[in-house]
Design brief:
Number of helices: 3
Low-confidence stretches: none
Radius of gyration: 18 Å
CATH class: Alpha Beta
Number of strands: 6
Number of domains: 1
Distance between the termini: 30 Å
Largest sheet: 6 strands, mixed
Amino acid sequence: MATANLSFNSLESNPYNSVLTLMDTRSNIADPRDPNGLKSRTFVYDFDPFHLAIDFNDLPYIILELPTIDYGIKNLKGSRKQISYTHRITVRTAKRGASNARTDIGKTDMLNICDDMQQMFNSVSVKQAFMNLNLYNFDLRKISVNTYSVDQKYLYEAVYELTYETPFKDVQA
């Protein structure tokens, strides 16, 4: 996947794919299980892998959900719009790591991943990359944190809401 400019035919796919590509770049968000950036495993998902099977070997990971879209400010003809996007992002780690062997490695993984996400969405170069794609005003908010047990293993989970917007001129109007 690559980043791509917003167009009338790709109001959902191009913004999503652009955010996914930049989040799945290891120099932006490091994978604790792939420190050399070889991308030997999936780190950023578009679905919750726990819905398929409870596999602790996949942890840690990030889930970037598909966006919800809101058409905000419009001109009288509706040809110019302010479109707002919202993604839900979930970060999940195992308290004792994927191998269930190291005490509290999950907390360290969680904090490192969350720090990387905050740094990425506040980075001038990443903001410029998004502006080049006509995407503006990125805001990453942590909306919940949780620690819970699955199959007698503790997990950390942080849920974020990523919002951004684009001014868009409808070429079909």
